[in-house]
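User: Structure please.
Assistant: Input sequence and predicted structure:
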Amino acid sequence: MACFLALLGVWMAAGPVLAGQWVQTGAVSQTEDRPVPFLHRLLLGESALFSQWAWGRTEGEALSPEEADEAGEQNLMPPTPDNIREKTITGGAGSINSGGVSLFNRTEKTVDLAAVAAGGTTLSFGPAAEGPQVLIMHTHGTESFARDGTEPYTETGTAHTTDSSYNIIRVGEEIARIFEEMGISVLHDTEIYDYPAYNGAYDRSRAGIEGILEKYPTVQMVLDVHRDALVGEDGTIYKPVVEVDGEKTAQVMLLVGSDDGGAEFPDWTEHLALAMEIQEQMNSLWPGLARPITLRTARFNQQLTKGSLLVEVGSHGNTLEEAIAGARLFARAAGMVIKSYEGG
């Protein structure tokens, strides 16, 4: 994997742009995603060499987007103080921008953001007293952040740990706390679905979500919270960060799935409309907090509820403190959107 990582590139033309995503905007077969420049394909895990090496597939046998994302995440370059670079990622080359909303479209679909916004969503929340409204969970619960040498936990892999005080589950706790403060009834699933086996985590998390939805039918939104991983061709690890009130804060990216890969997902535009509302709310309150939304070919289990989204808080170059700060602000913005759909 080291030789593969050495080839990875960040497409830096035309000012600040998306550096690439390993975790959730990561690998897909070229037959499923819009063709992109060679370095982008490598950064997104789309190279045929990588796909076959990682999975033992024969040439021409496509990976699912979820499978290939997982393959890339298992071979991360370790973040160290001398290879981390701060970057505020905004809509740039290759993005669609309309009405304050920015989108990277990694599908073959033509997306009219104004039309999507006008179509809206049929999402509706009942009173919090009737039962949980939101489920926060983590398909890749062991994802963790850059260390400064003081954290008293053991890694189970590069930027991964099962210690939920230091991994992405801790970030989910912060989102849940803010939602509860806002009067939103929330469940936080702290089950680790990606350890000891990382491959197949999306299948296991889908079963977990389905069991929770059966038990709590009042849940209308599922937020699958992750952190990203951004690596440049020279080994630089990029951490998406913005300063808010003098505090370094991890940027947040919303990822929306679609039916572009062939799986049934007829209402994916409603999910995109919801993500657009939250992105707009984040950036209106804290300019630069939200990275561009990414639209992908796979569903990432979002077909299970009207309000399902994937949330990327920072990257493995950010510190846990920066991620918690970003999660806190995301939750306040998302909570305001959720409250607007109560009784709708």
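The chain has one domain: 80-340.
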